[in-house]
Design brief:
The chain is of the alpha/beta class and about 150 residues long. It has six helices and five strands; from the N terminus they run βαβααβαβααβ. The N and C termini lie far apart (about 40 Å).
Length: about 150
């Protein structure tokens, strides 16, 4: 066998939409018996800015950990004890890219993420994380906007 069973993964960014995605994912995980993982990405641009300002690597790592815990705390609160996450994954990099790499490396993943609803102009010029993930995802993605 060797293949891992399918799991539900929630991309956590601390937003209300992300919390709503976590709640919906918890309902599905509870109903299907699938495992639920929490995933957050510390933006590499933030780490780079800290490094440029001369922040020591240990402090950057501590900041990354704190960021992850804050994102996971919001998601865990939204789960309302429906299901216990089996893992919390904190990555560093460009969020859409890191989420897509995670999905490629975990092919049996059903991703849930919130859509923040940026303006049309911003979405067209920069693209949103959810749009990039949907466009290039290698597995199922559920986007929650409310």
């Amino acid at each position: 066998m060797g293949q891992t069973s399918s799991s539900i993964v929630v991309a956590c960014d601390g937003s209300d939409q992300s919390a709503n995605a976590a709640a919906l994912a918890a309902d599905l995980a509870s109903a299907t018996g699938q495992s639920l993982r929490l995933l957050s990405v510390f933006p590499s641009t933030q780490a780079e800015r800290m490094a440029i300002r001369g922040v020591q690597p240990e402090s950057i790592e501590a900041n990354e950990e704190q960021y992850g815990q804050e994102m996971f705390d919001v998601a865990r609160k939204a789960l309302k004890d429906k299901v216990e996450p089996t893992e919390e994954v904190l990555l560093v990099g460009e969020p859409a890219s890191e989420i897509l790499k995670y999905m490629e490396n975990h092919p049996d993943t059903h991703l849930f993420l919130g859509r923040r609803g940026h303006s049309l102009v911003r979405s067209l010029t920069l693209g949103s994380i959810s749009e990039k993930v949907i466009r290039h995802a290698t597995g199922p993605v559920t986007v929650v906007s409310e």
